[in-house]
Amino acid sequence: MARAWINANESAKQMLSRVLKERPLLHLPPPLHRIPLGVNSILEIAGPSPSAKTEILLQVAVNCILPKNRNGVQYGGLEHSVLFLDLDCRLDIYRLSQLLKLRITDANTLHKTEGSSNQPECDETYVFNECMRRFLYTRCYDSFEFLSALKVLNHKLTSNSVHILMIDNIGAFHSIDRGFSSLPQGNPSRKNIGAQSVFETVVQEIKKLLELHSMIVLATKTVTYQVKSSYSTRVSGGLKSTYREYMPLTWQSFVTRRILVRPLDDKRKFGDRVCYSAEWLLPALSITDEFAVCDTGILDSLRV
Questions:
Q1: C or N terminus of the chain, fewer CB within 10 Å?
Q2: For residue 159, pLDDT beyond 70
Q3: What share of residues in the chain are helix, strand, coil (percent, to 5)?
Q4: What is the mean pLDDT of residues 261-288?
Q5: Does 5 reside within a domain?
Q6: Which pLDDT belongs to residue 244?
Q7: 169 vs 7, more confident
């Protein structure tokens, strides 16, 4: 088997076709729809508080845990599990269930309206319970619990095919960890515990996970938004966004994709709803998307 693999001869086009078939790119819902993500991508969703960052995670989670179809009803999901690491400890599980139930009900209603199949529709409660079993949740109250959760994930993921690892507010404990690093050490031979060493370990543990499990990592980050006229440039009629970066370089260099979201004052496109903008920083795109949050989820400008 190994000799056959070594002696295999294929072109770059054949290799790409094979890899993309085995590990297809993931197309996320708006406002993350501009750039599809491949396996082992690390997407950072940065923005001030509030800027709908957790709402974006929930929207992606619902798309992931929904089934593709049941009894002829097209739900349009991926049928994959999601692991949600809540570092803010503020996840509204009712909001997740609300979004999920609305998607299930809408799919069943559309199935009835089209009348495209004589098969009975799936029981909504059954589909809902099936989806919720794919949503794995862990709450962490400090960096030690966060690191412990990452270290035991290899064991947990052996029985669950997790497609997306979500980390809500990756910098939640950064200021606390910085305080630890400034304290005098009782034992000089003991390694100093601080933000830098914590995130070096975080990145190492996530890398170990990605070596064994084909996953995509989505992490939110709360930042302080600033507009500096001396450095800002005009982009799509607005000011290019800048913010104060505080995460260690270890994490910054680990991220492969980055998007910045922020609230807007202009509500003309979405009525009286709070509006947000989404700007890709890595890779840098000249397009800025606008969206709002409603009861049924995220409403982007393309659907208005």
A1: N
A2: no
A3: 40, 25, 40
A4: 85
A5: no
A6: 85
A7: 169
- Whether 23 is in a domain gets the answer no
Q: Is residue 275 part of a domain?
A: yes
In contact, 263 and 241? CB cutoff 8 Å: no
User: Strands 242-243 and 225-226: what pairing?
Assistant: antiparallel
Structure tokens at 168: 């809500």
95-154 per-position pLDDT tens digit: 999 999 999 999 998 888 876 555 555 689 999 999 999 999 999 999 999 999 999 987
Burial of 292 (0-12, 13-18, 19+ CB in 10 A): buried
Domain boundaries, position 51: 36-303
Q: Tell me how crowded residue 280 is: count the other CB atoms within 10 A of its CB.
A: 19
Cis-peptide into 67, omega within 30 deg: no
Residue 8 in this model has a pLDDT that exceeds 70: no
285: tokens are: 């795109």
Could you read off the pLDDT of 46-85 as tens digits, one per residue?
A: 999 989 999 999 999 999 999 999 888 899 999 999 999 9
**Pairing outcome for strands 216-222 and 42-47:** parallel
CATH number of the CATH domain containing 284: 3.40.50.300
Decide if pLDDT at 21 tops 80.
no
C-alpha 102/C-alpha 252 separation (Å) is 36
pLDDT at site 132: 96
β-pairing, 238-239 vs 234-235, is antiparallel
272: pLDDT strictly greater than 70: yes
Direct distance between the N- and C-terminal alpha carbons of the chain, in angstroms, rounded to an integer: 54
How many angstroms separate the CA atoms of 167 and 89, rounded? 11
**Domain total in the chain:** 1
Which pLDDT does position 147 carry in this prediction?
Answer: 95
Residue 4 covered by a domain: no
**How far, in Å, CA of 61 to CA of 57, rounded?**
6
Residue at token pair 């390694």:
191
Strands 225-226 and 69-70: unpaired
